[in-house]
Specification:
17 strands, D-amino Acid Aminotransferase, Chain A, domain 1, alpha+beta, 2 domains, 9 helices, Phosphorylase Kinase, domain 1, eight-stranded antiparallel β-sheet
Length: 324
Amino acid sequence: MPVDDETLRSRLSHTLERTNFSSLGTRYEGKVRDTYAQNNRLILVTTDRISAFDHVLNQTIPFKGQVLNQLAAHFFDATADVVPNHVEDVPDPNVTVATRCDPVPVEFVVRGYLAGHAWRVYEGGGRELCGQPLPDGLQESSRLPQPILTLATKAEEGHDEDITPSEAIERGLMSESDFDELRDAALRLFERGSEMARAQGLLLVDTKYEFGRAPDGTFRLIDEVHTPDSSRYYYADGYEQRLQAGRPQRQLSKEFVREWLMEHGFQGKKGQTLPDLPDDFRAKVSRRYIELYEKITGTDFEPAKGDPTNRIQKNIQTMGKKTV
């Protein structure tokens, strides 16, 4: 059944901000996930934290963790025939059990349309992004002649850095043969993601992929795939009309959160104060995430019941008896 206003409001003060399951092994806190390492296995708990401009925001978003984890599981399953991934099990709406991989220290970003960071570079006069040329005469949201691959190094703190393939190879971040393999994998994944989006009346604008090397030496798709935290979607209906009129596209992504932050004086730059998210906006963000889940999967979102920490702890303990 749909998430009504009362349910959403009641969860504003009962979100999953972080976990501390000390019995599960070494804990690492990322921007939105709490990760527990167990030998060759990882337990990934997707919280309700939200990040933008490489900063974790002060407030959480109800149901965001569940949406991200279940969407990632949906797409990992739907792309497993394209590229193998790290998923072993999904024992809880917020939890994924995964094969522990050695991460490739570069993000693979595939762009099919001129939007977000790419548009800001282009609007500022740039006609090249990470070594990829951009033709003249484009406008915001224009479809690119063909999808382009851009790379970014994953910074420990602050903004990630654009990098060309040759720079990544020269720095020893990957070999040329590894780059060729992962470039082809990223483009195939984007093609599958685009097909799935079109089937649901959406356009996959851009997305990032992360890869890791599994214990058997093969590359696996890791982290997440085609979720609103790593991807941008436009509605296909009305896209051309809005483009011709120079109007903003209707989109399902985190971009509107970034836009809200910029309107409130924050772009992640040094000295800027991170603004608090009011409850009305938090509820709006939650609805956007739920809308994307339902739109891209074609199914209703079923909110998990009960206190998320207690539920997850119970499910992990049950899982632990079987897997640890």
